[in-house]
Batch of 2 targets.
Target 1
Amino acid sequence: MPSLNFMGRKLRNHMVAPAAKQRAWERSSPSRCADENKGGMSRIVQSQPLLWAQNELPGSIQDLREEVQHQPCNVHSTHLDQENNTGVWKCGGASWLRKSRMKWNSFKRWMSSDHPIEESNTRPKEPNVPSVSTKVRDREDDTPTDMKIFIPYDSAKLCITQIADDMLAMKSRHLEMVQELEENFLIASQENQEKTVHKIRTYYQNKLNALKRVLHLYQEKVERRNVLWDEKIKILQSVNERLQDEQKALQERNRHDSATWEREKSKIMELFSSRLDQLHNHQASTLQELQMARTEMGRVQEMLQNSKEHQTKECVDSGAPLEGAKARLEVLRESLYKKERELSMLIDGGGEVLNGVAPSAYTRLLAAVIRQAHLVYAEVTEAKQQFDMMAEGNRKTIADVRNKVTSIQEIQTDMEYVEPSNRKDQSEIITSDQVTQAVDLQKHEVLQLALDCIKMGVTPTINGPVSEDDVAALDESVKKFEENFTHGDVSNLEVGKSVGQQLLLLQAELKQIKEENKKMTEYYTAERTLRKKYYNIVEDMKGKIRVFCRIRPQTRAELAKGSNTIVSCLDDYSVILETPRGPREFQFDRIFTTEHTQDDVFQESSRLIQSAIDGFNVCIFAYGQTGSGKTFTMLGDREQKNPGIIPRTFTRIFEIIQENETKFEFKVLASMLELYNDRLQDLFVSPSEAVSKRIEIKKDKKGLVFAQGAEAKEATSAGELFALFELSSANRHISATKMNIESSRSHLIISIMLESRNLANGSMTFGKLNLVDLAGSERAAKTGAKDDQLKEANSINKSLSALGDVISALALEQAHVPYRNNKLTQLMQDSLGGNSKTLMFLNISPSDCNLDETLTSLIYASRVKAITNHAQKNMESKEIAQLKEVIFRLKSGQAVEEEDV
Ligand SMILES: Nc1ncnc2c1ncn2[C@@H]1O[C@H](COP(=O)(O)OP(=O)(O)OP(=O)(O)O)[C@@H](O)[C@H]1O
């Protein structure tokens, strides 16, 4: 049975009409729809009616294709309507078919025109099944036009139903696809949007971060500057306060002196001003006289003029002379000239004759007054100021008055051009004005002269001829004046002078007291230092553990952070820590500041090296938080430009040995151990070898602690000892903390056994010198330690806390001291509270960022100071030493000489 492919599906259950039947159908349908074939309908449609009448549907593929390809809506509806009318197409499926067709067509249009890509994307072509449109087109091309295929009604119906189903399915699929596409699009756009937003956000976030960093740097800079300024301001403030205090004290002292002086001063000033007033009054009266003389002269001149006119007339009339008038005029003129001379001399400062006083006597009088005044001026500061102010004010007034006088003179010159009738009145006004100004000017000039003379202590020179009577009169007045000065008014001046002198004396006394104070302070400090020194020696003799505190300088990191210094030194023995609750003072045996060198530090500790050689157990150890300067103190810097206690000790040991080699025979043995993660390690062997080595802490019969299993190597020079130390340093554990500082993560214990034999008596001494660089105490959280580092930190803290417990127990003199709690305390047993001289270095940071650690360390070290050791010399007599030697030789199978026994 032949099958049809339709829309990619095989159509089964359809009947293909036999060829004969088809041909008959073709023949019997010549022009069935001739009228309807207006829109170019195919021939198939035109030839249908006959068969339709026989209840047979147009079942050819061509028909279906036609229906599918064209827009048959109106045509087919007409056609179907017709069929309905004829009752052939009765199944009621026309509208259904139409709808399907319409949907199909619209879908086809959508597929072919608008969404070619989507079609290919969403519905991949099956390789062997062509798409509907292609297939139909192919068939159009391939199928001969005269070929007819008849499909039975049932098959067609089924086919159409299937098509409809397909279409519905397809529609729903496409709707889904559209929806999916829309969703995809939405998601994609959303993603795009989010990506863009993310990109923008990241870009701006980066920018913001960079800006923040810059801002942070600036802030740090500003903060650092602020801190510096604050410090400077503080210093300035303290200086200012000190100055203010001093000023207040001086003011206080001056106040009651100046009150007395004020009174005396006003009296002196009154005296001066009354003297000056007298002079001024005299000048004024002289000037008035002069004025009167001038007026009189003017009147006489007028009279003369009148009489001239009269005389001329009379002469003309009678010829008599004007003898009387002339004589009077001469007298007047003479008196006027005299007055003018007096005045000018007075103004020039050198009056020939003043009020009947001769110049030499006048000079003496003036000199006496000026001498007294100058004394006051020179010795009393307030008086000096007052005088200077007065002189300045007076100078200004003189300048003003001179200006006025000049302007009056100018007016006088202009008067020459004024009408003679007006001239008289105006000249009178001007003259009176001139007189007032002249008096004023003289008054101030005299005052200025007096002030200048007082200031410089000189007497103005007066020239001119002097009569005998004048001299006698003046001598009399000078005497009177001097008497007045001595017995009466002048006493005030004396008081002023004595006040000034007292002031000077007081100042000198103050200076002396200050110097004495300074000396006293120096003596006190020296005394205190000496007392402490002796105290230290006594404590040393008693065997107390001595604690030195060393303050390191601020590190670069701390300076960069802008940390403040909170540790200061009161003296060589007291350190003060500024805490939020106020300053706390701690006392130690010695304080070393940043100004102290490695040499200073070693000098203080070198006495103990001699003790070790003398047969004592000596322990020097450094304690402090990480980075506080323990290694710097014990070992020095990495380049060994500033060697610490350990290398210096090596050198010193052999220096002492060399100094005593004629009297003693020495043997130096060294062992170097590390306590890392609660494990003792011999540093003379590599870490890999050390793993298999077991070291145990033991005590010998004398109670001296030693590490069994650790090598002790002999050194015959400082160089050898140093080489041994370098060898051990290479095997040490160090790590970098968060602060990026190379940090010791283990406790370093260097034990130097010093054996000496007295060549004179054969006695043996055994000293042990323990040099310990403890690992840094630290807070794990602060250093950011993790894993191995955290383990290290825990182990270090555990050992240090065990050390703290031992210290507490020893300080409180408890019966049980928990030495055995940790290997560190076990090792240090004979150094702490044992048979030892112990020196502890407490290293601290001066910065506020380490306040907590510094405070803890200071408290810790304060407790250590309370411990008393019982230092004893490890010595054996010659006999014991010899017996030991014999026993040793016997044990080792050597021959024993009689002498030995
Ligand atoms: N007195 C000092 N003068 C100058 N620099 C010092 C002084 N003390 C310490 N330093 C410097 O401070 C830094 C830290 O010192 P150091 O390594 O000695 O500390 P530490 O306490 O031994 O640290 P850790 O416990 O981590 O080993 C070093 O760079 C050191 O040079």
Target 2
Amino acid sequence: MSDRVLIEGLAVDAVIGVYDWEREIQQRLELDLTLAWDNRTPGHSDRVDDALDYAAVTATVRDWFADNQPELLEAAGEALAALIRDRFGVPGVRLVIRKPGILPGVRNVGVVIERGSLA
Ligand SMILES: Nc1nc2c(c(=O)[nH]1)N=C([C@H](O)[C@@H](O)CO)CN2
């Protein structure tokens, strides 16, 4: 099954970073999520209850960053992947988390976290 639900360019302001000055500010992160989901059932029923509701997943990501202040992008990715899989029963998650403009002369830094099956 190669069906997916996508959330691209999710912008969130978060307290995140290793250095003292980063603990005092909010920084913009940009996330892309690729979520394994069998879209045949909602495709036939036309019911959001059968779908992986991307609005609900987006709200979960925003709420997590409101409640947590990780140091590393990796820590955010690991926790979010586990939370999304657990809460929504998603079999596989690919998360890209970008921190734009943090390094001079570099457009984006970021991490990719893949957990579960995206086969
Ligand atoms: N692999 C990572 N490297 C770094 C991270 C990170 O989250 N993952 N973070 C930082 C600092 O917080 C950076 O954003 C500012 O220099 C450094 N390296």
